[in-house]
Amino acid sequence: DAKTTQPPSMDCAEGRAANLPCNHSTISGNEYVYWYRQIHSQGPQYIIHGLKNNETNEMASLIITEDRKSSTLILPHATLRDTAVYYCIVRAYNNNDMRFGAGTRLTVKP
Amino acid sequence: KAGVTQTPRYLIKTRGQQVTLSCSPISGHRSVSWYQQTPGQGLQFLFEYFSETQRNKGNFPGRFSGRQFSNSRSEMNVSTLELGDSALYLCASSLRFSTDTQYFGPGTRLTVL
Asked: Do A44 and B43 touch (CB under 8 A)?
């Protein structure tokens, strides 16, 4: 079973920041937070991951709370092509068994 | 660097048949994981292979099996197909099975009639 909780859907205006929340209150000390997205039933695309520090890459930023029980994925300037289902996953350091939940369907509107 | 490739992309079979799907990981990646995605159950982990050995296995019946070759390419097989096996089958590769990020292929869409 997935160890994360995400809102089923969100809307965002094009050009604005999209902030996608995720709760993972039972996360263990050796578990990372991963974010993937999936567009039109293509293979999931890796976005970003982190352990306890905030992370940023060319796609997004990941903000993890100090107690690690929740996190937020930030797409700084959402475009129409960012419309997708976004999955938040917790994954142990040495385990490739990633449990995907239902994700958040983000719709970016013009 | 080329991404994960899966063949075939689409497949139609009938109940009772068997099917073999193929996955070529990113060059240098040694771990391959397989997932099944259906509208009702979402993305579910099938199994993971590393260095030709199955390391982890999800909660699927024995009709689902896999193997990995010395070049890290992997195949999964489903025997005695059922209607419920219709799904998108995804393969993901990573360098090792530790913290390395998994990169997914485009998937094989299997339809069982």
From this structure: yes
